[in-house]
From TrEMBL, chains A, B:
Top enzyme category: transferase
Database matches in Pfam families: GATase_6, SIS
SUPFAM superfamilies in alphabetical order: N-terminal nucleophile aminohydrolases (Ntn hydrolases), SIS domain
Catalytic activity of the protein: D-fructose 6-phosphate + L-glutamine = D-glucosamine 6-phosphate + L-glutamate
Protein's name according to its UniProt entry: Glutamine--fructose-6-phosphate aminotransferase [isomerizing]
Known function: Catalyzes the first step in hexosamine metabolism, converting fructose-6P into glucosamine-6P using glutamine as a nitrogen source.
Location in or out of the cell: Cytoplasm
EC number in record: 2.6.1.16
NCBIfam families in the cross-refs: glmS, PRK00331.1
Single GO MF annotation: glutamine-fructose-6-phosphate transaminase (isomerizing) activity
Gene expressing this chain: glmS
Domain SIS: 289-428, 454-602
PANTHER family: GLUCOSAMINE--FRUCTOSE-6-PHOSPHATE AMINOTRANSFERASE, ISOMERIZING (PTHR10937), GLUTAMINE--FRUCTOSE-6-PHOSPHATE TRANSAMINASE (ISOMERIZING) (PTHR10937:SF0)
Database matches in InterPro entries: GATase_2_dom, GFAT, GFAT_N, GlmS/AgaS_SIS, GlmS/FrlB_SIS, Ntn_hydrolases_N, SIS_dom, SIS_dom_sf
Length: 612, 612
């Protein structure tokens, strides 16, 4: 996820674009850049860090001009630095391009261009696309928009792009597939942006560009063509949402937006990595270390909070598929012990921000003992990503809500891919199970989508339990960490004391808490421990607890036994946490909202815990 | 702990002794036996199981006679079966003996008797003592009481014994050291028992025999001599306590009694195993497997509830001292996975009752995968003790309170000894640290005693928080499992929702729960993580949480920072859980009592969970 802003018209472009970029910083903020044009040609300024850093940089530079475009980045390819920031020049500097999304086949395109003698200054997929377009434009002799269209016909991936042409200070070419792009239509001026927030103070008339459409602004006129070269008439509509609501994509809170983004973010975390059709997969960041991972005798996973829960899920998956013993440690506990690390041991560190202080310190300790460290982070180029030997990014996009949701499912997805890769290399997984799991993985986004459609039903249940003082969450096997995660969500944002337990452990103590006032959320999907957890539910019901069960679609038994059920689609047992956690996120969110809590900024908590 | 009853007078002894034994079954109930005498000589009947089983057995037997003694057993040496049950005959069957306690040097005495041609039918220390007394009596030519006195002068250990003499149907000889013995004085009749409950319905006049005293009843007369042969005048007093209170040793609840028993029960769990003076230790049950333990590459500990917490403590100790990686698993989760067990892996199963169904099933699974299994149980001869390859009993005596207290400290003690033995064998511990820890272990009972003396202060704190709705418990390192255990105690008996967390993990979510209504118990003893946990306390105080800190004696800093402090003596860091858990047990107990809960039988819970 990145933020895009562009302008062409009669105003000074630079301050307008910078202001717009700040509105979009929720989409990413690891580096920013701007392209401007006047008599002095096409100029690009870029800077690592927030938009404010770019603004400071520009203060002393020539920045006049009435056309410009800017970008605030959330790194996907290449670490966040000045060079990798957008815009990118094309090879002969005739064009500049900004891009939000991922070009999956960029490596193949790059290879072809390298053969033609091209060189690249950055590690980004975006620079490759810019050079590719310029190359076609130069060699095919058509218009710039033709070149864009031909280039995009070759591209696999998701994108929203805007291109400036050094030869024409009235021209902007934009296109989208999968990533959003809004065009604002003013009096003799046009605005483009990833959402309407940078636009609404100038005009309420907007066009939401559709997938496979190319927009061309030239000499004050807008035309839209499709990738197959059909001219379409864009639909101009009025923006009526509040600024803040637009940033949140129409959702009341970032957390809710992020919950609903999960079909996309889970897909993003697999994008370019899983090919279910051919039964293959690869994790670029692991390539050189896969043998080591597969050969390891012991894996230690470290993390904090939600990341620690993702680690617990991974423990089950690694042990089951790759038959490697896994220990999951709280980073804060690990770092203050004298942990046992032997040669060949692998440490996997999980952190959304990649800046978690305890986890970073634990990595340094493990390194000093000779461990090989893998990182699973969301923020590209973060401290943890840089401190590890290898790893895989989760590509979930920036997470703004303090209570982590899409980062968790992305972590679990990536850790599952790591386990699959290790199992495949080690030969502990059959070809048929491997293929089955890849196919199942690809089906997860649609299944998550289906759960999200039940949001209203979950809201009804949340309403009933708005004023509960306590909650217990129970699960077995892979759903035990999900129970912990569900309880943590409720704690974090509603301030209700919720606790997760392995269901069978309850009778060794916590069952004393159960009475008619105690809501008990039980994840009781149809898998190998289904019969056992039904028994645990009966134990709770015998003490008059009120049971909310997460069940598998078509389960006709549990509804008669429990007070409320929330159905999820049938999922392969190994992957069930990716789907079973969704209703728990919604339940926590709804209860917190009904209690009037500040969901996106719960009391006492910080998004990224950079202190120990 | 066992129960003892004896009678001589004009009544039928058999029904009186059986009734008395039933009153004493809280002291142990794995087997029972009785000795009776009339014209048919000295007859002994014994039976595995509860007293009721013995009673049934006796229904068809000759059981008349006005002298008799009985015993209900809690096994310490030898599994519970008919043969190991008391009474035991002496070698020439002139005497029968019942015994409560442990003869620590029985092996040496047995060796000497074996050389003389003696044989033994049971594995008990008691049979050894009986034969030893008879041997002295036969060879020294004095009276039976002289022989008892001379024998006991040689004995190291704790005991309450009663002896019947085949040659004299009016004679009972009893002695005590360390284990209780009460003598009831009636009209021409005498009663003896471990406590007054079997006696009070016949007479209120009782004598509490003192340590090192021998009581002889002969021809209707009682004399008391000391071990050094001074005749003393026994002090006859009136019993005024209620029956139930006597069983509970004057405490309001079994749980409280068991909390206060810990200086003794911890000592019992080390008895005969630790010789701090000579810097040596041994664990009989481990002898043949110690090399295997020391050579293991990985230990998996399984348990449920409180036993699982003891396992978490052991994880730290094993890793720190013996440098063997340890994983601690919930038995219920372990058994339903396909756990990875490799050759050379050791599984340690922990269970107070030795009958926990989930743990037993987990053992069977681990066995089927070729693991070597060690057991740490309290009940000798229990299913788990029989299912394991090796192990060590905790010797804490029967635990009646459903919320486990003395079993936990005994488990931690024994697991510490196992870790020390492994570390010593492996050479990962220095001689000086080894000796230091043995000496520190010996000092633990006195330190626990000191904490118990602060019970009134803890009660005052409990009073203030009687109506708290939630509690958080925090600890780091070895005190993290103690925090979990403290929270579990409160949950179990007060039904307050309490949760334990590693202190530094709190900021990753649970800190959202903290406000001025939230009591937070922090174990903040002066050890390596002291500074860190002080920071965690400050985080809590900054959110207005109310902090009860468990501190080390002489800490002058924390009292100014927190709301309440409870001091414990300075303890070596590795052993701190044995002492830091005590105030948490008392706090939970006091709060539960003030809330009017049924402490010994909390709702929904069972003492020994023999279902999964």
């Amino acid at each position: 996820m990145c933020g895009i802003v562009a302008y062409v018209g009669h105003r000074e472009a630079c301050p307008l674009v910078l202001k717009g970029l700040k509105r979009l910083e929720y989409r990413g903020y690891d580096s920013a850049g701007i392209a401007l044009m006047n008599g002095h040609g096409l100029r690009v300024y870029k800077k690592k860090g927030k938009v404010a850093a770019l603004e400071q940089e520009l203060a002393a530079r020539e920045s006049s001009g009435t056309i410009g475009m800017g970008h605030t980045r959330w790194a996907t390819h290449g670490e966040p630095n000045d060079v990798n920031a957008h815009p990118h020049y094309s090879f002969h500097r005739k064009l500049a391009i900004i891009h939000n999304g991922i070009i999956e086949n960029y490596a193949a395109i790059k290879q072809a261009l390298l053969k033609k003698g091209h060189t690249f200054t950055s590690e980004t997929d975006t620079e490759v696309l810019g050079q590719f377009i310029e190359d076609i434009w130069e060699n095919n002799g058509g218009s710039l928009e033709d070149a864009v269209r031909l280039a995009l016909q070759e591209v696999v991936g998701a994108y929203a792009i805007v291109i400036m042409n050094e030869a024409d200070p009235t021209q902007l070419v934009a296109a989208r597939k999968g990533s959003p792009l809004v065009i604002g239509v003013g009096e003799g001026e046009f605005f483009m942006a990833s959402d309407a927030t940078p636009i609404v103070e100038y005009t309420k008339d907007v066009i939401y560009l559709n997938d496979y459409e190319i927009a061309v602004i030239k000499n004050g006129l807008l035309t839209v063509v499709t990738l197959d070269n059909t001219t379409t008439t864009p639909y101009v509509q009025k923006v009526e949402l509040e600024l803040e609501a637009i940033e949140k994509g129409g959702f009341d809170h970032f957390m809710l937006k992020e919950i609903f983004e999960q079909p996309r973010s889970i897909a993003d975390s697999m994008r370019g990595r899983v090919q279910a059709d051919s039964g293959t997969m690869q994790l670029g960041g692991l390539r050189d270390y896969l043998d080591k991972l597969a050969a390891s005798e012991r894996i230690v996973i470290i993390g904090c909070g939600t990341s620690w829960h993702a680690g617990l899920v991974a423990e089950y998956i690694f042990e089951e598929l790759a038959r490697i013993p896994v220990e999951v440690e709280y980073a804060s506990e690990f770092r203050y012990r004298n942990p046992i690390i032997k040669e060949g041991d692998i440490v996997i560190a999980i952190s959304q921000s990649g800046e978690t202080a305890d986890t970073l310190a634990a990595i340094e300790l493990a390194k000093s003992k000779g461990a090989t460290i893998f990182g699973v982070c969301n923020v590209v180029g973060s401290s943890i990503a840089r401190a590890t030997d290898a790893g895989a990014y989760t590509h979930a996009g920036p997470e703004i809500g303090v209570a982590s949701t899409k980062a968790f499912t992305a972590q679990v997805t990536v850790l599952t891919l790591m386990a699959l890769a290790a199992a495949k290399r080690k030969g502990t997984i059959s070809e048929s199970l491997f293929r089955l799991l890849l196919a199942e993985l690809e089906s997860i986004p649609a299944k998550v989508e289906k759960v999200l459609q039940a949001a209203d039903k979950i809201k009804e249940i949340a309403y009933i339990f708005t004023y509960a003082r306590n909650f217990i969450y129970l699960g077995r096997g892979l759903n035990f960490p999900v129970a912990l995660e569900g309880a943590l969500k409720l704690k974090e944002i509603s301030y209700i004391h919720a606790e997760g337990y392995p269901a069978a452990e309850m009778k060794h103590g916590p069952i004393a808490l159960i009475d008619e006032d105690m809501p008990v959320v039980v994840i009781a999907t149809k898998d190998s421990s289904y019969e056992k957890i039904v028994s645990n539910i009966q134990e709770v019901k015998a003490r008059k607890g009120r049971v909310i069960a997460i069940t598998t679609e078509g389960d006709t038994h549990l509804p008669s036994l429990v007070d409320f059920t929330i159905e999820i689609p049938k999922v392969h047992e190994v992957l069930v946490p990716l789907v079973s956690v969704i209703p728990l996120q919604l339940l926590a969110y709804d209860i917190a909202v009904m209690r009037g809590r500040n969901v996106d900024q719960p009391r006492n908590l910080a998004k990224s815990v950079t202190v120990e």
